[in-house]
Task: inverse folding
């Protein structure tokens, strides 16, 4: 019995909560220049209507303010979260994001504009009405976007992930491309379909 107890106690450090890290610029994110937070930090769902929107909960007010206002990407419990505040479109929230390649992040939100639409830092896009958030907890009601740095404009931009973009990403994954093309056309740009097939192909991490 004593041996079992000692074994359990030795395992406790392995069960500790992983340190939350953040980047204050996109270049820091690309260069993996992470900063560790002070004190305990959690990302929790901000509302029942929008379970995918996350807000920061921190022991220290300074840390909470820093992550909410200045950080652009947070790593929490081995997952990446993108700060959507700079886009001035989706609200002051973080959302789960997946890395594509070395310089892009994919995330899912409501469809706010036609294909090809992009938003820059400080864009004059009006926030959406709260009525549009009724179905945001389900990926099938969302679309995907890519966030990437535009070196010419020197700003972070986002663009809708269309069917043609997904097919391009799956060029070297014929099995998953075939699976994707078998999906009903009107559902091919749904976030649940895109995320599922890209994860299966190993395109997003």
Result:
């Amino acid at each position: 019995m004593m041996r079992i107890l000692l074994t359990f106690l030795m395992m406790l450090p392995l069960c500790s909560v992983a340190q939350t890290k953040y980047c204050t610029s996109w270049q820091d994110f690309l260069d993996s220049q992470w900063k560790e937070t002070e004190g305990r930090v959690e990302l929790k769902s901000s509302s029942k209507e929008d379970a995918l929107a996350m807000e920061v909960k921190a022991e220290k007010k300074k840390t909470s303010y820093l992550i909410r206002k200045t950080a652009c990407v947070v790593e929490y419990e081995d997952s990446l979260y993108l700060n959507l505040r700079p886009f001035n479109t989706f609200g002051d929230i973080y959302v789960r994001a997946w890395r594509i390649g070395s310089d892009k992040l994919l995330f899912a939100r409501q469809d706010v504009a036609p294909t090809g639409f992009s938003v820059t830092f400080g864009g004059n896009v009006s926030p959406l009405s709260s009525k549009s958030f009724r179905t945001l907890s389900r990926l099938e009601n969302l679309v995907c976007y890519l966030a990437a740095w535009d070196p010419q404009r020197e700003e972070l931009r986002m663009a809708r992930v269309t069917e043609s973009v997904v097919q391009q990403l799956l060029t070297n994954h014929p099995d998953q491309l075939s699976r994707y093309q078998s999906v009903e056309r009107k559902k091919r740009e749904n976030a649940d379909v895109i995320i599922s097939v890209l994860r299966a192909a190993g395109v997003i991490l």
